[in-house]
Amino acid sequence: MLNLRDEFAIFRTYPDLIYLDNSTTTQRPQYVIDAINDFFVSKNANTGRGNYKLAERADQLLADARKKVAGFVGADINEIIFTSNVTSTLNLISYAFLNDTLSFGPLALTAADEIVLTQAEHHANLIPWQKLAHRTGAKLRWLKVDPSGRIRIDRLEEIITSHTKIVAFTHLSNVTGAITDVQPIIQAAHQVGAITVLDACQSVPHLNVNFHDLDIDFAGFSGHKMFASFGTGVWYGKSELLEQLQPVVYGGGIVEDVTLETSSFVDSPLRFESGTKNFDSIYSLMAAIEFIEHVGRTNLIDHEYALTEKLLEIQNIDGIRILGPTDHNNRIGVVAFTVEGVHPHDVAQFFDSQNICVRAGHHCTKPLHRIFGVPASVRASVSAYNSLAEIDQFIETLSKVRGFFGV
Ligand SMILES: Cc1ncc(COP(=O)(O)O)c(C=O)c1O
Question: Model's pTM, two decimal places?
Answer without folding.
Answer: 0.97
